[in-house]
Amino acid sequence: MNTAATHGLPFMKMHGLGNDFVVVDARVHKQPLTARLAQAIGHRHFGVGFDQLAVITNEGAGDAHLTFYNADGSMAAACGNATRCIARHLMDESRKTVLHLTTARGDLAAEDRGNGLTAVNMGMPQLEWHEVPLTQEMDTLALPLKGEPTATGMGNPHCTFFVKDVAAIDLPTQGAKLEHHPLFPERTNVQFAQIIGLDHIRMRVWERGVGVTLASGSSSCATAVAAARRGLTGRKVQMELDGGTLEIDWRDDGVWMTGPSSHVFTGTLTQAFLDSIK
């Protein structure tokens, strides 16, 4: 018997530094999830509200497979903070300290770092124009846009501007405009970063398919990679976001992201709500 269809759909509300998620454990609760349903759940007035919806399944060879939707119903191959939140949940559930997770981005390792911190290897950055992707061949280190941003792929596209003062940036206006720039055939996440020191970056994020967000794991990884490539920082930095701080470490085996996570509450989407989304 399909308990989700009879009694609604349980979910968990989580966040990593204010980057918030609805998480559905489809290993237990079977419910077809569509772009329209994701968009409805993501509405902050008529649904639950989230930056991303994450679905846990048993697909693949790892401990779990993760699928991500943005708030506008579009899909994302990667979501670093959600991956870290879910890794913490699965570690608590299984009592494992190391996990192997699969995503459309690829296979991601996760580790318990103690003191409530979880680390996830977000994989190797994609530095070639066709990997990001961009619409035409060019140097990803300095794009032909005002401010000469750096493009980086982390399973999703990123465009990082280095500025003197991130507080002075009109993020809603600039982010919305740049997300849809013709250089990015799949749209892009947009970051504005201020170098505080060789191991410290202050960064703000416009997330593709979401808007302004308090934090973004993949954006933090992309910004750290961009800063290191440009010689502005080392390969290990503290990334200070509106919602808190992540540690990013670009190693030979990938870009590791370490930070806290929070499971805020567990709830249930009613059957009436699910039936209303056609």
Characterization of this structure:
By secondary structure, the chain is an alpha+beta fold. The chain folds into 2 domains: 3-121 and 261-276, Diaminopimelate Epimerase, Chain A, domain 1; 150-252, Diaminopimelate Epimerase, Chain A, domain 1 (Roll). It contains 6 helices and 17 strands. It has helices spanning 3-7, 35-42, 80-94, 171-179, 217-229, 271-276; strands at 9-16, 19-25, 52-57, 64-70, 75-76, 98-103, 106-114, 117-121, 150-153, 157-162, 189-197, 200-207, 211-213, 236-241, 244-251, 254-260, 262-269. The protein has a 17-stranded mixed β-sheet that branches. Strand 14 and strand 15 form a beta hairpin. The longest helix is centred in the N-terminal third of the chain and has 15 residues, at 80-94. It is globular, with a radius of gyration of 18 Å. The two termini are 22 Å apart.
